[in-house]
Amino acid sequence: MRVQIVRSSNEPLSANAGGPQSRQRTETLKGSFLGNEEGLIRCPLVLQLGLDFEGVTSKVAFITGLLQLVGLTHPQELVGRFQFPATRLLARPTEGKMEYLSVLDSPVEEVLEQALLLGLCTAFLFDPYRPVLWTETSLSRRLDLFQTEGFYA
Question: Distance (Å, rounded) from C-alpha 138 to C-alpha 124?
Fold first, then answer.
């Protein structure tokens, strides 16, 4: 029996269950603990992050300009201005629809808060203890952040 698993990236994985070729079948399995708020394994959604840079050519230059507008010189100086989770969170690219904060139409403080949180994220992890890093890639991310509860993570 051959089992085919389709990951979120739509790339199939195959696993041989030991049966002969004549007894093959294909099953699609899909599941996630992310977003689950009940049961033994809980991973509730904590935050959704994302900025809309439509019409902006350089994301880093734009956000750095906003930082200077409020009298700061380095992204790390934002850490004391906003409250955010004090623990690491799992991150995954946003799958659903959400409205992203427009950098051109939103209050400067809200944009800088989102930029701070994105600067504390990698593609898969929010870490409040890492340095704030702004790159074109990090500011372009649209992430769901999940708290891990109910098991060792």
Answer: 11
